[in-house]
Design goal:
The protein is of the alpha/beta class. The protein has 10 helices and 10 strands. The termini are far apart.
């Protein structure tokens, strides 16, 4: 663990610092997943995941589950609209315990944050909220021209001062070639093994949802959730049936009183 001061000027510990992550480039593959609850954060930390990313609104609760993990706070586009909103949201998230800020906004916003010495994660490749410009949800870099244009996007993001980049659904060969030619920490989400960090959403890893093509489930929480739902329905139906046939409540659930007290109560009840 590395000793740090947080953006709120509090002493803390981190499994990785921004400098550590940069030093891993080309040498050590790191892992990242999402966490937006205390339970998700604690599970990821216990499993040895290196880096976490959460919605900026959830930084405080995530920190209760993983107090010492490198944490990126994502500023979603609709929720942080103006430049001032972005800066305010970034500084608030950092004060609450984030170590890095993720934004898919224009280069000027990345540069604004970087000039404040904030470690910034950009977003290139398939940016789902902007997928209409790509003709829908698809892999990026499938032609030489598109791949070369993507290389320029990486250079522009690097020149704007970004520290890292979520590289989403980029052709694997293209990602590997670009990662070797940029100082950005490349966080590969569905972009093959050539990135510096392997990243999947936690609900995909755990098998909670139908998977996109680029993902893989390593668990089957959906089956457990269905078992729990079936047990819930069965329990509710059994409760209703027992209530109707008189088997609930029974002697085990009923409070009692001494026989003498009961008899005295019943004898005197109608006189009230």
């Amino acid at each position: 663990m590395k000793r740090i001061y947080t953006w709120d000027a509090q002493f803390s510990l981190r499994n990785h610092t921004a400098a550590d992550i940069r030093a891993c480039k080309g040498n050590t593959v790191l892992t990242q997943t999402t966490a937006n609850t205390r339970e998700e954060a604690a599970a990821a930390a216990d499993a040895g995941i290196d880096m976490l990313i959460c919605n900026a609104a959830n930084v405080e609760i995530v920190r209760t589950g993983a107090p010492h993990h490198f944490l990126t706070a994502a500023l979603t586009i609709p929720d942080w609209q103006t430049d001032d909103d972005v800066l305010r949201g970034a500084l608030t998230a950092l004060k609450q315990g984030a170590d890095s800020i993720m934004t898919a906004r224009r280069l000027e916003i990345v540069e604004m944050l970087a000039k404040e010495d904030i470690p910034v994660m950009g977003h290139l490749g398939l940016v789902p909220r902007k997928s209409t410009w790509r003709g829908g949800l698809r892999a990026i870099g499938k032609t030489a021209d598109e791949a070369l244009a993507l290389m320029q996007d990486f250079r522009d993001l690097e020149n704007a001062g970004a520290f890292s980049v979520e590289a989403e659904v980029i052709v694997a060969d293209v990602m590997a070639a670009i990662s070797k030619r940029t100082s950005l920490i490349t966080v590969s989400l569905g972009s093959g093994p050539g990135g510096d960090v392997q990243y999947l959403f936690q609900n995909d890893i755990c098998g909670e949802n139908p998977l996109p093509r680029h993902s893989r489930a390593f668990g089957n929480l959906a089956a457990l959730a269905e078992q729990m739902a079936a047990q819930r329905r069965a329990a509710l139906a059994a409760f209703r049936a027992a209530s109707l046939d008189g088997s609930f409540p029974g002697a085990a659930e009923n409070a009692t009183m001494p026989d003498a007290e009961r008899d005295d109560f019943l004898n005197r009840l109608d006189s009230i």
